[in-house]
Amino acid sequence: MARTAAVVGGGIGGLTVAGGLIRAGWRVSVFERAEGPATTGTGLGIWPTALRALDRLGLGEAVRAAGRRQPDGAIRRPDGSRIATIDVGRVQRRQGDPVYLVSRPVLLGLLAGALPPGIVHYGVAVADPAALRAEYDLVIGADGIHSTVRGALFGSRSGLRYSGVVAWRGSVALDLEAGGETWGRGRKFGLTPQGPGCANWYATLRAAEDYRPPAGDLAELRGLFGDWHDPIPRVLERIEDGGVLRHGLHYLAPLPGFTTGNVALLGDAAHAMTPDLGQGACQAMIDAVVLTEAVAGADDLASALRRYDRLRRPPTRRLAAASLRAGRLSRSTRWLPARDLAIRGALALASPR
Fold it and tell me: Domain FAD-binding: where (predicted)?
């Protein structure tokens, strides 16, 4: 008899693990609280490690075909002078694949399209996973940074921490040849080309957790970044009213484990990290593939889940810590020459993952 799995959360990690388990012969149900598939979202950088994981599920080529290669970029100062070059081509030279830019809705569509009809149940919020644990052989918490499944397993030990940073993001109608970041004192502005005539932007500022711009988000952004180098002022001019999403950046304190009993966590539910390394989606997909391969043919599910935990918890913990350090470095308020030297050294020595 086929084993059964309930996946809580129909995002990138949840859809990936559902597809993997179905390919392995499992019967899978995905429960997603949203009323339907996402239709909006900014671009994601899909790194070679994630592409190779998707290759093992037969999805890598579809993602490559749907994306565009990320061009080289730069880290600059507000006056436009260059701090360091972001040599994305180096990733391909070392790992055989470039970084591909894919919008979130397109990626979700590819992952959902690989599933048989009726697998994803939209508009279903799981308040307590206990009933699922009794009904299914395996319950997977892929329900994001505010995971209900994680809270049920670990309670107060799974609390989120505020990074000290508020972020804005959105997209504008603008052709952009290359992206990158601009670092000021305690704030930064980033740009990524999403496709013809469309660019993603984001901005961060060191601020209290309850920060609210007194004159509104758009006025605040123009006041903070309006005199920075081109094309930042043009981006700010093209942001439409209502086209700004603001939120505090939080990260998850390290968990004692990603599994308990017949429950496994993946993605942001397991290791929510700040976005400074752009690895959230990639790590969720890698989690999903590793979990699939651990449990697919295992006679002992408990041992298989322990194997998944051993394989994924240490590297994601290191990556989350590195992302936090990178964010703090980019928003330094003093010793800026030392900051610039540090990032040039890090980019020169780091081996892309």
Answer: 5-72, 132-315
Q: What is the pLDDT of residues 147-165, one digit of tens each?
A: 999 999 988 667 899 999 9
End-to-end CA distance of the chain: 39
Q: Which residue has the tokens 């081109």?
A: 230
Q: In this structure, are residues 74 and 82 in contact, taking their beta carbons and an 8 Å threshold?
A: yes
- Cα(308)–Cα(295) distance, integer angstroms: 8
Cα-Cα-Cα-Cα dihedral sign, residues 87, 91, 96, 98: negative
Query: How many residues would you count in the chain?
Result: 353
Residue 105 backbone dihedrals phi, psi, to 5 degrees: -60, -40
- The string of DSSP codes covering 95-147 is HSS--EEEEHHHHHHHHHHTSPTT-EEET---S-THHHHHHSSEEEE---TT-
Long-range contact set of residues 237-246: C-beta below 8 Å, sequence gap at least 24: 238/172, 238/173, 238/174, 239/170, 239/172, 239/201, 243/170, 243/171, 243/172, 244/168, 244/169, 244/170, 244/217, 244/218, 245/168, 245/169, 245/170, 246/166, 246/167, 246/168, 246/213, 246/217
Q: How many CA atoms lie within 13 A of 308 on its CB side?
A: 31
Is residue 269 within 8 Å of residue 149, measured between CB atoms? yes
Residue range 2-61, pLDDT digits in tens:
899 999 999 999 999 999 999 999 999 999 999 998 888 778 999 999 999 999 999 999
Record the tokens describing residue 164, joined without a space. Answer: 């000290």
Q: How far apart are CA 265 and CA 274, in angstroms?
A: 18
Residue type at 244 in one-letter notation: V
For residue 207, give Cα distances in angstroms to 167, 201, 247, 277.
Answer: 10, 19, 11, 20
CA–CA gap between residue 102 and residue 245 (Å, rounded): 20
User: All domains of the chain, ordered by start, with CATH?
Assistant: 4-69+100-160+254-331 (3.50.50.60)
What DSSP state is assigned to residue 72? P
What stretch of H or E contains 27?
A: strand 27-32
